[in-house]
Amino acid sequence: MSDPAKIVTACILVIGNEILSGRTRDSNIQYLATELGKLGVRVMEARVIPDVEATVVATLNEVRARFDYVFTTGGIGPTHDDITADCIAKAFGVGISEHPEAVERMTKHYGDPALFTPARRRMARVPHGGVLVDNPVSVAPGFQMENVFTFAGIPKVAEAMFQSMKHRLVGGVPVVSRTVRTNLPEGIIAEPLGALQKRYEDVDIGSYPAFRNGKPSVSLVLRGTDDARLATAAVELMETIRGMNGEAEEFVT
Amino acid sequence: MSDPAKIVTACILVIGNEILSGRTRDSNIQYLATELGKLGVRVMEARVIPDVEATVVATLNEVRARFDYVFTTGGIGPTHDDITADCIAKAFGVGISEHPEAVERMTKHYGDPALFTPARRRMARVPHGGVLVDNPVSVAPGFQMENVFTFAGIPKVAEAMFQSMKHRLVGGVPVVSRTVRTNLPEGIIAEPLGALQKRYEDVDIGSYPAFRNGKPSVSLVLRGTDDARLATAAVELMETIRGMNGEAEEFVT
After folding, report:
1. What is the predicted pLDDT for the residue at B214?
2. Which of B71, B116, B121, B155 has the highest CB neighbour number within 10 Å of its CB?
3. Which residues have a Cβ under 8 Å from the Cβ of A132 and sit 6 or more positions away?
4. Once rounded to an integer, what is the mean pLDDT over residues A30-36?
5. Residue ranges of the MoaB/Mog domain (chains A, B) (predicted)?
6. Among the ranges given (A6-20, A45-59, A164-178, A212-226), the one the predictor scored with the smallest mean pLDDT
7. Helices (H) and strands (E) in chain A, counts
8. pLDDT of A162-172, one tens digit each?
9. Predicted confidence (pLDDT) per residue in B38-48, tens digit
10. Residues of A in contact with B188 (CB under 8 A)
């Protein structure tokens, strides 16, 4: 179900000191942004915040009011620094306790009751009103509170949780993109590129320089909801570049 | 110069649609967080925001008031989607024009005046009052406005810009860390780990599960400003784990 006229927005909240200290390089933002884009949900902001209750609660309440969807990653494991579930309960002003279905799944998974430790039982705690998000990797579930989805931080688990719940999302029109690569530097193509952007107001044109095989290269990315428009703009762009004696080819991902 | 009693904070602002669309995986947060940590500057938040003027201006004004330092990456190239410099001028309520020193450096760099195109001249524009940040890679400078430092988005350039200006920062006490790795799962060590955290309130203990060589492994990271305390806590932690028949070793990065 989607409303073609509506732009559906999302914010990603990465909760974890290990990203802010530089110990770990986040990959959940890129994964979720890519997957959400396919569903017509546009990530408009991503924030990395520390495992500090006041910060998590305040940030969560700010972004869940501003965006259609919020996705959190991190902080739902069994150790003392896993405070996300409690913070979400506090942000929503509800209690938190063991979810019977979560307990049942984890009891079955661990088998021996001695292995289902009190620490692991903490992972069965869900804010009241929360709906479980399946965890096909390591069982302990994530959960949904209204428009907020809470995932684990480990990429493999976060990705599996997203795949298991994505049918619940109501997206808008998916954004598609076309990429033209050229050997002309940005400083040479900037003017005709800006003119093209003015003629195609419904297309978002981005310019991303990089080094490829040791040589400078620029990726010109056209993004929008109407692929036919993107195709027309891409052809026009390649003709312009070739008219300036540059190389241009469409790069298909 | 540093004041050992003060906690110096920073926010990283990543400006760019290409990160929010999932096209590009950011690496500047990890690099800057690691380098700032060495200088005793703690990154307390990182945000990824789109190339939208109102968003950049509002976010910048919020975070420059809240944190000691702000570092922005992205949006200072020569193309139409490079709007960061103008947004910063607007946020500070000042004008923007060509900086004579920037023009001089770029004139020298490009040599042939035909190559110093109007688009490239845009990269010499600096908000009034801005102090240049050197760019040893591709010449076009970044700049500093009070506590806000503006870098390019390309990692190689952002990293060189940071190295060229880091002597301007006044940090606090550097945070150091020690890492203990174990084969015991989080759900088994969570209780003694939480007890250790309570005994070492001045040490920030984080627990990060991962897969190493196909086997589950947990990194227990002790962070703080007093390395002797970290060493004592690490020894205590390893003894606890070995007392539970687990493997424990300090991992030196």
Report:
1. 80
2. B71
3. A99, A101, A102, A126, A141, A142, A143, A144
4. 98
5. 11-173
6. A212-226
7. 9, 12
8. 999 999 999 99
9. 999 999 999 99
10. 117, 119
Tokens 């195709």 identify what position? A231
Q: Which of A29, A156, A176, A178 to mutate against chain B (most B CBs within 10 Å)?
A: A29
Q: Is residue B20 within 8 angstroms of chain A, CB to CB?
A: yes
What average pLDDT does chain B have? Answer: 95
Chain B residue numbers touching A230 (CB-CB < 8 A): none
Report the C-alpha gap between B204 and B185 in whole angstroms: 20
Residue A151 reports pLDDT greater than 90: yes
Distance CA A174, CA A45 (A): 17
**From A21, A32, A191, residue closest to B119, measured CB to CB:** A191
Would you tell me which residues 75-94 of chain B have a C-beta closer than 8 angstroms to some C-beta of chain A?
77-81
Domains of chain B (ranges, CATH numbers): 8-168 (3.40.980.10), 176-251 (3.30.70.260)
Q: Are strands A248-251 and A176-182 parallel, antiparallel or unpaired?
A: antiparallel
Point out the residue among B21, B22, B49 whose CB comes nearest to the CB of A45: B49
CA-to-CA distance for B2 and B39, rounded, in angstroms?
9
The DSSP 8-state label assigned to residue A236 in this structure reads H
Tell me how far CA of residue A182 lies from CA of A75, A177, A221, B118, B119, in angstroms.
Answer: 43, 16, 11, 20, 17
Whole-angstrom distance, CA of residue B29 vs CA of residue A233: 33
Mention every residue, 6+ apart, whose C-beta is less than 8 A from residue A101. A132
Q: Which of residues 146-165 of B touch A (CB under 8 A)?
A: 154, 156
Average pLDDT over residues A98-123: 96
CA-CA distance, A165 to B70, in Å (whole number)? 36
Identify all chain B residues contacting A17, using CB atoms and an 8 Å cutoff.
204, 206, 223
Taking contacts as CB-CB distances below 8 angstroms, the residues of chain B near A156 are 211
A62 — phi, psi (to 5°)?
-65, -50
* Centroid of chain to Cα A245: 39
Characterise B87 by phi-psi region: left (phi > 0), alpha (psi -120 to 50), beta (else): alpha
Give yes or no for B107 touching A (CB within 8 A).
no
Average pLDDT over residues B19-37: 97
Give contacts of A81 with chain B, Cβ < 8 Å.
197, 205-207
